[in-house]
Design brief:
The protein is mainly beta. It is built from one helix and 21 strands.
Length: 298
C-alpha cells in the first residue's frame, strides 16, 4: 500500500474528523498539471487532476495484476463520491474496496453526511459533520456496527488573533488538541502543535514549524508511555528541512534518539515555465525517483 493511499485509508477508518480533498500542491506540482506518473522501486504511482487542480484519481500499481486506486467525484467543486478499489491477482478485492458518498445541507447551518459502504455491500460507517455560522467544524456523529459516537469540537482564539486552539472531545474525554500559531492576525501559519490522547491521557505530540512561504521546515514527534503512574516520552524523532528557490527540499536532517542522518536531494527539472522536477537523486543513499508530467493543453 502506497504512503498516500495508505494514509487516506487510515484516515477514513480511524479518524475521519473532517472531509479532506487534495490538489496539485499536495504532490509538489505547479501549473496546469493533468497527470503525474511516479516510478518507484515497488511499482508506479499515478495521479490525475481536473482543470481546477483537484485530484480525481490516485493509483499505486504494484504489478500487472495488483493495484490500488482511489477515485474522486466532484459537483460544483464539492466532493460527492470517493471510491477505493483494490485488485489482487487481477480480481477486485471486495473486502477492502469501499465507496464513500457525501451529501450537503445548509439549513439551518452547514451539515455534511458521509456514508461508507463496502464493495461486498456491507455497511462500514456513517458520519454527520456539523459546522457553525463561520464554517468551523463543531460536532461529528459517527455510527457503525459498534454503536453511535459523538465528538464535540471547540475553537478558541487568543486576544491578538494569532493563536487558535481546537479541542476534540468524546464522552467528556479529550481526543486531540490542535494549536495553530500564526505570524500575525490573518497571516500565514508558523507553527502547528497536535496532541493526541488515549483514554484521556496523552499518547503523542507533534510539532510542525513553517516558514513564511508555508513550507514545513521542522517536524518533531514524541510518543508517550505510562510508567509509574506518569506519562513520559519514550520515543522522539525530528526532521529539519531546507529548500531551494523552487521550494524543493534539498536537505533533510533526521534525528531519532541519538541517531542523526542527513540526506540531500538533487533535482532535474522538466524545462517548463513551472519548473516541476522529473528526477530526484537522494544522497548518500544514491537512490532516485523519476516522474513523468503531462500538462493540460492551452
Amino acid at each position: 500500500m502506497s504512503f498516500f493511499i495508505g494514509f487516506l485509508f487510515t484516515h477514513i477508518m480511524v479518524w475521519s474528523q473532517e472531509i479532506i480533498t487534495y490538489d496539485r500542491s499536495d504532490f509538489d506540482l505547479k501549473g496546469p498539471v493533468k497527470s503525474c506518473f511516479v516510478f518507484t522501486k515497488y511499482g508506479q504511482e499515478q495521479y490525475q487532476f481536473n482543470k481546477t487542480g483537484q485530484l480525481i484519481e490516485a493509483a499505486t500499481v504494484f504489478g500487472e495484476n495488483d493495484s490500488e486506486t482511489t477515485y474522486y467525484k466532484y459537483e460544483k467543486n464539492k466532493l460527492v463520491e470517493r471510491r477505493v478499489e483494490n485488485y489482487v491477482n487481477g480480481e477486485l478485492d471486495k473486502a477492502t474496496s469501499m465507496a464513500n458518498f457525501y451529501s450537503y445541507d445548509s439549513v439551518p447551518q452547514d451539515k455534511i453526511k458521509e456514508k461508507i459502504i463496502g464493495y461486498d455491500r456491507t455497511f462500514v460507517a456513517q458520519f454527520i459533520y456539523r459546522y457553525d455560522s463561520i464554517g468551523q467544524l463543531t460536532r461529528v456523529v459517527r455510527t457503525n456496527t459498534q454503536g453511535r459516537f459523538i465528538t464535540l469540537i471547540t475553537h478558541d482564539w487568543d486576544s491578538l488573533g494569532t493563536k487558535k486552539s481546537t479541542a476534540y472531545w468524546q464522552d467528556s474525554l479529550p481526543l486531540k488538541q490542535v494549536d495553530s500559531i500564526f505570524f500575525k492576525a490573518g497571516g500565514t501559519l508558523t507553527q502547528l502543535n497536535i496532541k493526541e490522547f488515549d483514554n484521556g491521557m496523552p499518547s503523542s505530540m507533534e510539532q510542525r514549524m513553517f516558514n513564511k512561504k508555508g513550507l514545513e521546515i521542522e517536524f518533531h514527534n514524541t510518543i508517550y508511555d505510562k510508567r509509574d503512574s506518569l506519562y513520559t516520552p519514550i520515543k522522539t524523532s525530528s526532521v529539519r528541512t531546507k529548500y531551494n528557490s523552487n521550494n524543493h527540499p534539498i536537505e533533510q536532517i533526521f534525528e531519532r534518539g541519538v541517531v542523526r542522518q542527513t540526506k540531500k536531494n538533487l533535482y532535474q527539472l522538466d524545462g517548463s515555465p513551472f519548473k516541476n522536477w522529473i528526477k530526484k537523486i537522494t544522497t548518500p543513499d544514491n537512490t532516485y525517483t523519476t516522474r513523468k508530467i503531462i500538462y493540460f493543453e492551452e
